[in-house]
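Entry 14. Ran structure prediction on the chain below.
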Amino acid sequence: MTTRRERRVFTSEFKQQMVNLYQSGKPKSEIIREYDLTPSALTKWIKQADTAGSFKAKDNLTPEEKELIALRKRNKQLEMENDILYPKGT
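Output, C-alpha cells:
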C-alpha cells in the first residue's frame, strides 16, 4: 500500500534554482532525487521557465485559455446587466 505524499508548496525562487541547476547541466534524475521532487513538477517548472519565464499559472495560459476566461467574465457581466434591466418574475 502506498501512502499519499503531502502536497508541498515551493517558492518561485526555489523553482528557479531547480531550473538553473538543470540548465547548468545537472541531470533531472539527480535534482529529483536530491531535492525529493516529482518528475512532473520539475518538468513543468522547466517548461514554464522556457515559455513564459514565470511560474504563475496565469502567466502560462494559452491565448485560447485567456480568451475563454475573458469571454466568461464578459458573459457574467452581461447576465448581471440583463437581470437588472429585466428582473425575473415581473
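The first helix runs from residue 12 to 23. Will compare against last week's run tomorrow.
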